[in-house]
Amino acid sequence: MSSARVLSIFAMPILLSACASAPPAPAHLTLLQRTSQKIPNLGLVLTIGDVTLGQVLTKIDDDAGEPVVLLRSMQPGDVATFRRSGSEFTLGLVKLRNRLFGDDLAEFELGPADRVTSTQIESMLERLAESRLTFVRNGEEFSGERAAAHLRAKLAVANPPVRTANEFLERIATRSASTGRPYTVKIGSDTSTPLARWLRWSSTQR
């Protein structure tokens, strides 16, 4: 048997092992309240309850009905981590939609933790950039677009790196790193609210 043939035979388990441990492909899941949806390729079912008060009851079961992620209340920015087929998965709640008419819904991202976190944070920053509110930083006023750009720049150099959307809200979007003064936003002429609170709230709006 040639040396090339021997090498190819012994390389096969390595290649198979690499495939088995490949990171899970991300998936975006949108569910109407009080419904269930199969998670592609995993033999799992995601179920949610009512979307109310900025949160939703969420659970994941396998096809036999055995719990994988126990029933929990989630709000935008929250994550649930579990293992399946030798890989670690993260389910992150990105948005909730409370509609005046029709059913409310929830949007999730499923995949590697860093991808899920990036999607959750970017969703918040996009809404900030598109808003007409006034961002107040160290006594100066800026547009929502300037606020989003500032937070993206701050996030990019965070040390240690931000690992979750909730950590982003606490470490990046709460106060100035140079003065410690809180970030706020003005809605209208005189109504002021903490920026981090607005970012989470914005992820529950239509």
Please, could you describe this protein's structure?
The protein folds into 2 domains: 23-111; 122-202, no CATH class. The radius of gyration is 21 Å and the shape is globular. A hairpin with a 2-residue loop joins β6 and β7 (87-97). Residues 1-23 have low confidence and may be disordered. The chain has helices at residues 3-20, 113-130, 144-156, 165-172, 195-202; strands at 27-32, 36-39, 44-52, 55-62, 67-74, 79-84, 87-97, 105-111, 134-137, 140-143, 184-187, 191-194. The protein has 206 residues and is an alpha+beta fold. A 4-stranded antiparallel β-sheet has the order 1-8-7-6, covered by helices on one side. A 4-stranded antiparallel β-sheet has the order 2-3-4-5, with no helix packed on it. The chain is built from 5 helices and 12 strands.
Outline of the structure:
The chain is an alpha+beta fold and 206 residues long. 32% of the residues lie in helices and 36% in strands.
Note the main attributes of this structure:
single chain; 206 residues; alpha+beta; 4-stranded antiparallel β-sheet; 12 strands
List the topology elements:
Elements: H1 3-20, E1 27-32, E2 36-39, E3 44-52, E4 55-62, E5 67-74, E6 79-84, E7 87-97, E8 105-111, H2 113-130, E9 134-137, E10 140-143, H3 144-156, H4 165-172, E11 184-187, E12 191-194, H5 195-202
Antiparallel strand pairs: 1-8, 2-3, 3-4, 4-5, 6-7, 7-8, 9-10, 9-11, 11-12
Helix pairs in contact: 2-3
